[in-house]
Write a structure and sequence with these properties.
It contains 6 helices and no strands. It is an all-alpha fold and 126 residues long. It is elongated, with a radius of gyration of 15 Å.
C-alpha cells in the first residue's frame, strides 16, 4: 500500500525582514528542500523576494516549485532508467541505496528523497 501524498504546506512569512523566517517557514523550508544546498538557496531566495515584494509565501512556493521543476527535468534526462525507476519507487515508500542518487543529492543517506520538492515533482512530471 502506498502512502497518501502529503498536502502541500502553507507558508506564512513574518511581517518584517528583521526576522525573515519564523519557525513555520523554517519547517516548510526543511520539508521542501531538505539539506540540499541548491534547493535551500533557491527556496530561500524565493521566500526573501516574496517578503520584499509583499507577496504571499504560497506564491513564493509556487515559483520555487516551477524553477526547481526545470532543474529536476534537466537532471532527469541524465539519469539511467534504473535510477529513474528507483526515484519513482520513493513515492511508493521504498528506500534506495543507489550511491549515484545519493552522490547527486537526490536521496539522503537513509535512502529517502532529499525533500518534498522531489516527491511532488515525481508525482507531476515523469
Amino acid at each position: 500500500m502506498s502512502p497518501s501524498p502529503k498536502p502541500r504546506q502553507s507558508v506564512s512569512l513574518p511581517d518584517s525582514c528583521a526576522d525573515p523566517f519564523n519557525e513555520t517557514t523554517a519547517s516548510v523550508i526543511r520539508s521542501f528542500a531538505g539539506r540540499h544546498p541548491f534547493y535551500l538557496q533557491l527556496l530561500g531566495r524565493h521566500l526573501f523576494e516574496a517578503d520584499r515584494l509583499g507577496e504571499s509565501g504560497e506564491s513564493a512556493l509556487d515559483r520555487f516549485m516551477m524553477e526547481a521543476g526545470g532543474r529536476l527535468r534537466e537532471l532527469w534526462k541524465t539519469l539511467t532508467s534504473s535510477e529513474q525507476q528507483q526515484l519513482h519507487d520513493l513515492r511508493r515508500g521504498k528506500r534506495t541505496q543507489l550511491r549515484t542518487l545519493r552522490m547527486r543529492g537526490l536521496v539522503t543517506s537513509d535512502g529517502v528523497a532529499f525533500g518534498e520538492v522531489l516527491l511532488q515533482w515525481l508525482k507531476e512530471y515523469p
